Amino acid sequence: MSRHDSYSTFSRRDFMRLGAGAAFAVAGGGLSGLSFGAGQTTLACSFRSLTNPYYSAFNKGAENFAKSVGLPYVPLTTEGSSEKGIADIRALLQKTGGNLVLNVDPNDSADARVIVEACSKAGAFVTTIWNKPKDLHPWDANPNYVAHLSYDGVAYGEECATKLFEAMGGKGGVVALGGIFSNVPAIERKAGLDAALKKYPGIQLLDFQVADWNSQKAFPIMQAWMTRFNSKIKGVWAANDDMALGAIEALRAEGLAGQLPVTGMDGTQPGLAAIKVGELVASVDWDPYWLGGIGLSMGLQAKDKKLDVASMAKDKRESFCKATFVTKANVQEVMARASKPAADWNNVYARVSGPVVYR
């Protein structure tokens, strides 16, 4: 079996897991089966889905942080539904009597305001990841809204596009796959792509379509593009690894996997494996394992009054964090780290790179 065959087997198996991880998620309807100790703080994370390797790593970090402090942990998945995400959080707030620390990646940016208000009213502590409105800030709800953590999607979207355009020789047609329109990361990463396009007049954007961060939706879009544009396509930009892998599977069906450069983001293990064998040119590792735990750590420290959030500098509460741009040159190092994830969740400032920039 060749190295490409080895990766292909893994990739197809991962790609065809149509919701296998969902069985591990705890939805609002399952909360009745959980028991909560009197006076014991419950930790919880709310995120999109366990079928995505990025969120699987995020959840694992949260689980391991909870184990490290000896507290119960509840994962909640939105499955792409804002209504479900908000309803599950409200149910858990009621079940715990507000004795809750929540780390949430809202399904849509507008959801963050509703979630923060519900947590503040119940006396719970909440950290948001990635998504929130520009006019909502942690210091608006002291001390319950602890922090907002994100990454510079514009800068990394542009860096991935630049790497892709260089691999294309600076000319030719490119197709692009975006995340959910109302997601801040999707908006920022698309802005980064647009910035790179302005610097490369020889690159033509043939089409941009939203695939909702999902490989299953990216696959038929890529198939349709190959029929529509055929040999005009010289590269594929994707706003996350999962969509990039969906595009690669469509390319594989035509014998083109590894022949056309593709870029993604998220630094997932399947994405890193694709870089290793040359089917993905670049990705960005946000370290979701660390994110899953640090949001809970900040919330718990605030709840236990070990962290006085009201006195913290604003750029420490609404922060861009450090990420790793991944190519074939450093993928082995990143893969080794991902295979044995570790994090210092006590040092809440360790990976802060600066304040969130609103463009």
From TrEMBL:
<dbReference type="GO" id="GO:0030313">
    <property type="term" value="C:cell envelope"/>
</dbReference>
<dbReference type="InterPro" id="IPR025997">
    <property type="entry name" value="SBP_2_dom"/>
</dbReference>
<dbReference type="InterPro" id="IPR028082">
    <property type="entry name" value="Peripla_BP_I"/>
</dbReference>
<dbReference type="InterPro" id="IPR006311">
    <property type="entry name" value="TAT_signal"/>
</dbReference>
<keyword id="KW-0732">Signal</keyword>
<dbReference type="GO" id="GO:0030246">
    <property type="term" value="F:carbohydrate binding"/>
</dbReference>
<feature type="domain" description="Periplasmic binding protein">
    <location>
        <begin position="47"/>
        <end position="304"/>
    </location>
</feature>
<dbReference type="Pfam" id="PF13407">
    <property type="entry name" value="Peripla_BP_4"/>
</dbReference>
<comment type="similarity">
    <text>Belongs to the bacterial solute-binding protein 2 family.</text>
</comment>
<protein>
    <submittedName>
        <fullName>Ribose ABC transporter periplasmic ribose-binding protein</fullName>
    </submittedName>
</protein>
